[in-house]
Amino acid sequence: MSEDFSDIPEELYLATEAHVKYIQSLDTRKDEYDYWLTEHLRLNGLYWGLTALHLLGHPDALPRADAIDFVLSCQHENGGFGAAPGHDAHMLSTVSAVQILAMLDAFDELEKRGKGKEQVGKYIASLQNRQTGTFAGDEWGEEDTRFLYGAFNALSLLGLLHLVDVDKAVEHIAACANFDGGYGVSPGAESHAGQIFTCVAALTIAGRQDLIDKERLGRWLSERQIAGGGLNGRPEKKEDVCYSWWVLSSLEMIGKTHWINKSQLAAFILRCQDMEKGGISDRPGNMVDVWHTVFGIAGLSLLKYPGLQPVNEVYCMPKSTISRIFGR
Amino acid sequence: MANQGGSQHGIARTSRVRTEAQRQRDLERIASYRVLEDDLRARVKNPRTAYADRASAQHVFDLTTRLLRLNPEYYTVWNIRRRALLVLLPAGPKARRGDCCDRSSCSCLGETQPSHGCPKAGRSGTTADDAGDHTSEENDEEKKQDDEETEKQTRTMLQTELEFTIPLLIESPKCYWIWSYRLWILRQSISRLPVPVARGIWQAELALASKMLTKDRRNFHAWGYRRHVVAQLESDALGGGSMVEAEFQYTEDKIRADLSNFSAWHSRSKLIPRLLEERGADEKARREFFEAELDKIHNALNVGPEDQSLWYYHQYLMLNLTTLPPNNEHTITPTLPIEDRIAFLRNELAEIRDLLEDYDNVKLIYEALIDLTLDLCRLEGKRKPDEEEKENLREWLGKMKELDPMRMGRWRDFEEGLRREWGVEA
Amino acid sequence: MESLSDTLWDVVICGTGLQQSLLALALSRSKKKILHIDPNDFYGGSEAAFSLQDAESWVKGLTGGFNGFFKSATLVKSEGTTGLGPSRAYYLALAPTFIHSRSALLSQLVSSQAYRQVEFLAVGSFFIFKPAQDPCFRPTLTRIPSTREDIFSSTAVSTKAKRMLMKFLKFVLDYEESPQLEQWRSHADAPLTEFLGEVFKMDAELQTYVLTLTLSLDGNISTKDGLATIRRHLSSMGVYGPGFAAIYPKWGGLSEIAQVSCRAGAVGGAVYMLGSSIKEIETVQEDKLLRLSLSSGDTVRTRLLVRANDSSGFGLSISRLVAVVDSPLTSFFQPTVEGAPRPAVAVVAFPTGSLTTPAGATYQYPVYLSAHSGETGECPNDQSVLYLTTLSTPDSNEILQKALDAFLSTEEAQTSHILLRLQYEQSGGSTDLCAENCVITLSGTPLSLAFDDSTLDPVKEAWKHVMGEGAVESEYMNFPDREGEADEDEANE
C-alpha cells in the first residue's frame, strides 16, 4: 500500500545523494578533533551509516571488505567486540558488530577469521543476570533494558537465543511495564519511548507480544505526536527525529502506525535534513549527525516514503537482510 | 541501539567553515590527545605489567585522569581507571575478612575483576595481613590504628574519585559512563568502609541527585539515579530503613513546583503501594487516601485540563477502581466493594463533565469522559450503554475528531470498536 | 591633571539620582569628559538611602529646599527605643522600588556589566489584606496565587474561581495577539476591573487579586495598562529562578543602582563632586558653550549640561511611611516553591475599601506595604523595614498609620513593635525630556512601586544628545567585560 504524501510541499524531498556523500565522508574527517573524541562509537557509527546506506539503496557506498576487516579487528578473545581496536568489549558494540556482519552477509568471515559465532553468543550470555533475567552492558556496567534488547537482537540473528534464559528476561520486561502501557529503563522507571522500543522489540523477538497492553500502549505512543508533526519521547517534552524511530517502530510492531499522522511526521523528518551537505538533525536547523540520520531515514522507510528500501521494525535493519537470515 | 552518545542534540546548524588557523589548532589538539591515548594504550597493552605494582598503577591512573578530562565518553578509559584504582585502594578491614568482593551489594553480576582488589594487593607492607595472626593487646591496638588509617585512606580516595567526576558531570550531565563510574565508586564504599561512613557517602549522593532534579526537573537519568540511590540507602548493606514517606513527600514538593512534572507523578504512583503497606493502612485509611489523591488530581485538572501528565495520573487512579480482585493487591483500595467503585465512577463522570463548562475545547476531557462511561458499563456487569450514554459517546467522539484530527486513524478504530463491542452506531 | 576650570567638559551632569547616574554609566566608556556633581552631600538624589543619622539630617535639610520632590518629612523614634541599633545598621531607602525580571533596566545592567557590582534579592509573595469581619477576630492576609502551581495549591479561592484565574493567566500571556486582542480592545480605556467582571466573570474579590498585581496607586488602572502590567509580572515569573518575578538590589534598591552607575562613571574617568550646586548658567561663544558658576566657587565650561527638573508640584503626589519594626517577620520571607531562593521583600496590598478614614468613610485608594527583611541590608537581621505608600490626600498620613497598625495586628506580624517612623510626601516626575540651549532637563522618576521602564527612555535620549553623531544605538549600555579587557588596555598604554 502506498502512502499519501501529496500534502508535503515540493521543496521537501529526500536528499538521497547528499546523505550518501555525508555518510561516506564520516570516516575521512580525521583532521577534526571530534572524530577522535567519538572513537568509542566507531562500530556503532558504522552500523548506523551502513543501515542508512542500505535503506537509501546504496549498500555498496562503503567498501564491504574494509567494513568486515574493521569489525573483526574490534573483537576480543572473549568473543565480545569493542567500539574500535583497543577499546574494551561492550554489549552495544557487540550488537552493532553482529548487525553489520548480518547486513554484509559475513557470518562466515566471523567463523573463518574471527572468534566464531558461538564465542560471541557466550560473551553476550555471560552478561545476563541469571537472577533477574536482565543484562548488563559489560563486566562493570549497570543494567538497562537497552542491553536486554541488544542481547536478544544479536543472539537471534546468530541463532543462539537458547544460550540465555529467555523466560527470565521476559519476566524482567514485564516488571518494567507501567500503568500507561509503556515501559521504563528498569522496574519502577517512568515510560520512555526509547525503552518502550527495546521492550516491545525484545518481546516480539521472544514471541511474547501477548504480554503487551496494545490498546493502552498505542494510545500513549500516538500521543507522542505533537503540533508540527514530530514525535516526542515522553509527555510534555520536545520533539526529536530519533523518536520518529523509537515511537513509530513500536507502533508498527503493535500494528497501530495509522494512529498518527504519517504525512506530517514525514514532513517533519524531511525538514530536519541538511539538503546541501546531507545528514539529518534532531530538529530543523540543528547540527546533523549519523545517529539522527539513520533514525530519520528508517522512520521515513517505515512510513513507506518513496525511494527507500523497507526497514524491519524490530531490528532496524533492511527487511531483505532479516528475510535472508530467518528465511522468511 | 538507543545510545545517544556522540550525537548532536539541540546544537544549531552553522555553515561555518574552519579557517586554516582553526584547522591547525584542531590538528594540534588531536596530536596531544593522541599522544596521551597512545601512552595509555601502550601501558595497558599487557595487563600483567600495567597493574603489577602501585607505581605502575598510579601512572596508568594519572593518565586516565588527563584523558577523561578531555573525553569523558571514553568508556574503556573509565574501565582502566577502575582496574588501576583497585590496585591503589588499600585492602580494608572488610577486605581482609574476605568480603571485599561481596557481590551481594552489586546490582549487576559483572564485576569479574575482583582479584585486583583482594588482599594481596594491599598496602606496601604485609603487616596488615600478618597482624591477624597475633592476639596480643599491643597488636590489637596496632591493628585498630591500622584499620583507622586504612579506612581514612579509602574514604579519601573514594571521595576524591567522586569529586573528580563532578566537573565532568556539569559539562556532560547525560554522559552514561560517568554516572556508571560514580555508582561503581559508591558501591566500593559499601564493601570497603564501615556502614555509617558508607551511608554518609550515599546520603551526600542523594543530595546531589536532588540538586540535579532542581536544575532539570525531568532529567530521566537523574530520576532513575535517585531511585537507585534511595534503594541503596534503604538496603541492609547500609543499615537503612524505608524512605518511602520521605520520597513520597519529595514527589509532592516536585509537583507543587511544577504540575506538569510527569516524572514526579509517575514516581508517586510507584511509591503508593509500598507507602500504604508500610503505614499498615486499613480499609478506611486506604479509602481516605484514595479520596485525597482524587481531590488532588481534580484540583490539578481544574487548572491544567490540557496537561497530559495530569490525565495519566488520573488514569492511574481510575485503574484503582476498575482493577478488580484477585489481581489488584497492589491497588490503593483492593477491597473496595463494587457498589462503591461504581459510585466513585459516577461521581468522577460528573466531576469531569463539570470541566467542560469552562473548557469545552480540550480533547483530553472528552477522552476521559468516554473512558469513564465505558468503565462504568464494564463495572455494571458489562452492560451496553443506554441511549443517553450512546448519545454522549457519539458527541464526545465527534469532538475528539474535530479537536484532534492528527490522530484520526485512532478515532476511526475507536469508532469501529464502539460499534462492534458496545453497539454504538455512528 | 587639569583643573576644573581649565577643562572644556563635554557634559556636566547635575544630580546623582537614578536617571543621571544611569547616564553616567551609559557614557562611562565614551571617552567624553564628564563632570558629575550633586548639590546634596550624598549620592542618589530622590533614590537615596540613609543611615539613621543621614535620615535625620535629610529630614532637617528638607526645609532648606535642596530637593523639591519631597516635603512634610518627619522622623519619630518610639519612646524608649532601646531596640534601635546603631545609625549605620540602617539603610532606609527613599525608593524601595523592586524590578521585574523582564525589565529593560536589568538587561541594561547586564549588558553594561554593572550587574556584577550589585547583589540581587528575590521579591517574594504578594498578599491581600482583609479587614476582620468581626472585631473579635484579627484581620487576615491572603497570598495571591499568580502561577498555575500557586493557584493549584491555593485554598483561598474556589474551584470555579481558579478556572477563571487560569483562563485569565493564559489570556494575558498573549494578550496582544489574536484572538485575545479582539476580546479587550473595546475595553482598552475602561477600568480593568470592569473588563475582568464582564469578560472573565470575576467577582469583586477575584478582581481585587488581579488588580493588586498591577500595583496601581489609584486602584483604577485602565484595561490596556493593567494587562500590560500583569503580563510583565507573569512573564517575569521564574526568569531568574523558581518562585519569584521581581528582584530587589541589596542596600537600598535603586540607590544601589545609582551608586554602582556613578562608580562605573568614575572608573571611566568622570570627575565627581558632591555638595556642589550650580549657582549661575551663562551661555557663551554663540550658544555653543555654557559657563557654570558652582557653589564651590569654581567656574567651569561645558558643551552640555544635564540636570533634573527639581520644581515640584506636577504629576502625582504620594505619601510614604517608613517604619522599622523589631521583628524579623520570618513568615513573610519564606520560599514558596522548592528550589526558590529565600525572598527578602514581600508586598501587602490594602485594597480600596479595606481602610476607613478618621471620619469613618471608606478610603478611596489602595495602600501598599513593602516589607523588607534584614537581608536587604536596610536593618539588622532581627528587625524589618516596612515601606507604606498611598496617594496623597488630606487623610493619607493617618491612613498610612492605620494600615501599619492593621498590619501589625495580623496573626503574622502581631508580636512586632515600631521602633522608628519616617513620614514624608513625594511628588513624581514625568518622563518628558526638555533640551534647549545646551541644557537637557530630565523630569524625574515616575512614582511607582515596581520599576517603570519608561524611566529609561529620557536617559537614552540624553545619551544621544551627548554622543551627537557618534551615537551608535547598538552600543548603548553594551560594554565588554572590563576584566577581559584589562590586558589589552595595559598593552595600549
- Multimeric organization: heterotrimer
Written as H for each helix and E for each strand, in order along the chain, the element string of chain A is HHHHHHHHHHHHHEEHEEH
- The structure class of chain C reads alpha+beta
Helix/strand-derived category of chain A reads: mainly alpha
CATH architecture of the largest domain in chain A: Alpha/alpha barrel
Number of strands of chain A: 4
Mean pLDDT of chain C: 89
CATH class term of the largest domain in chain C: Mainly Alpha
Helix tally of chain A equals: 15
Output the CATH class name of the largest domain in chain A.
Mainly Alpha
Largest sheet descriptor of chain C: 10 strands, mixed
Number of domains of chain C: 2
Mean pLDDT reading of chain A:
95
What is the gyration radius of chain C calculated from CA atoms? 24 Å
Radius of gyration of chain A: 19 Å
Shape of chain A: globular
- Helix content percent band of chain C: 25-40%
**Residues in β-strands, percent of chain A:** under 5%
Question: Helix segment count of chain C?
Answer: 13
Strand tally of chain C = 20
Descriptive account of the structure:
Chain B: Catalyzes the transfer of a geranyl-geranyl moiety from geranyl-geranyl pyrophosphate to cysteines occuring in specific C-terminal amino acid sequences. Chain B: It catalyses: geranylgeranyl diphosphate + L-cysteinyl-[protein] = S-geranylgeranyl-L-cysteinyl-[protein] + diphosphate. Chain B: GO terms for molecular function: Rab geranylgeranyltransferase activity. Chain B: Its EC number is 2.5.1.60. The complex is a heterotrimer of chains A (328), B (426) and C (493). Chain A has helices at residues 16-25, 33-37, 42-55, 64-73, 91-103, 107-113, 117-126, 145-158, 166-175, 193-205, 214-222, 242-253, 262-271, 290-302, 319-326; strands at 280-281, 288-289, 311-312, 317-318. With 328 residues, chain A is mostly helical. Chain A has three domains: 1-27 and 223-328, Glycosyltransferase (Alpha/alpha barrel); 38-126, no CATH class; 130-199, no CATH class. Chain A has a two-stranded antiparallel sheet. Chain A has a two-stranded antiparallel sheet with strand order 3-4. Chain B has 426 residues and is mainly alpha-helical. Helix content of chain B is 69%, strand content 0%. Chain B contains 18 helices and no strands. Chain B has helices at residues 20-44, 47-50, 54-70, 75-88, 93-99, 127-131, 137-171, 176-192, 195-215, 220-234, 244-257, 262-279, 283-303, 308-322, 338-356, 363-379, 387-403, 408-422. Chain B starts with 19 loop residues before the first helix and ends with a helix. Chain C is an alpha+beta fold and 493 residues long. Chain C has two domains: 8-51 and 252-310 and 432-492, FAD/NAD(P)-binding domain; 99-249 and 315-427, Orthogonal Bundle (Guanine Nucleotide Dissociation Inhibitor, domain 1). Chain C is 28% helix and 24% strand. Chain C has 13 helices and 20 strands. In chain C, the strands form three sheets. In chain C, strands 4, 6, 7, 8, 9, 14, 15, 16, 17 and 18 form a ten-stranded mixed sheet that branches. In chain C, strands 1, 2, 10, 11, 12, 13, 19 and 20 form an eight-stranded mixed sheet that branches. Chain C has a two-stranded antiparallel sheet with strand order 3-5. Chains in contact: A-B, B-C. Chains A and B meet through helix 2, helix 5, helix 10, helix 11 and strand 2 of A and helix 1, helix 4, helix 8, helix 10 and helix 12 of B.
